[in-house]
Amino acid sequence: MIPCTVYELRQYTLHPGRRDELVELFEREFIEPQEDAGMRIVGQFRDLDRPDHLVWVRGFRDMETRAAALAAFYGGPVWKAHRDAANATMIDSDDVLLLRPAYPGAGFSAPGGAEAGRFTAAVHRNEPSLADQCRRRIGPLACLETEPAENTFPALPVRTGEDVLVWFAAGDTAHDLPEPVQTLRLEPTAGSRLR
User: Fold this and answer.
1) Max CA-CA distance within the chain?
2) What is the chain's pLDDT, residue by residue, as a tens digit (195 residues)?
3) Which residues make beta-bridge pairs with 181?
4) 8 A C-beta contact, residue 143 and residue 106
5) How far is residue 152's CA from residue 150's CA, in Å, rounded to a whole number?
6) Is this model's pTM higher than 0.85 or not?
7) DSSP one-letter string for 33-47
8) 3-state class of 178 per DSSP?
9) Nearest to 170 by CA among 107, 113, 100
């Protein structure tokens, strides 16, 4: 298992009714080749409140290996063979947060480490002590914050100019943290490692 210090939270807006098509293609063709290139696919999820959205998370050892892994996958034969089919399902794939663990041990543990059925993820404006509040009040599966380093693979845009904290927890998690700017209610796909 790759120890990760960098994660991407990717939210795709898809053409109406095409989410299952992308999920099937993703799980059949893209997971193993991305992992062979040096990435860790944490999980992929249906957004329960937005039927034409797919949310997924992948991790990297560090920013340098992120650049190499993405170049290997997106320059390789599997992506070239299936990119047109994947891209045909999507309206937007640029809603991406580049993140790092907010404190030691706050990254995702081994895939499959949770058996929740559903997950909650929340995006907050980061502020002092928020990560500590998250750890004490929620005990999340992961607590991540903005990775401030420059995007090492500019062919795939990431959101910039934001300082966020994102936590992931099993089930529908209630909390008394400040109001998030976005809450995601997520259901793992059949092939998601995080289930």
Assistant:
1) 47
2) 678 999 999 999 999 999 999 999 999 999 999 999 999 999 999 999 999 999 999 999 999 999 999 999 999 999 999 999 999 999 999 999 999 999 999 999 854 444 558 999 999 999 999 999 999 999 999 999 999 999 999 999 999 999 999 999 999 887 889 999 999 999 999 999 998
3) none
4) yes
5) 6
6) yes
7) HHHHTT-EEEEEEEE
8) coil
9) 113
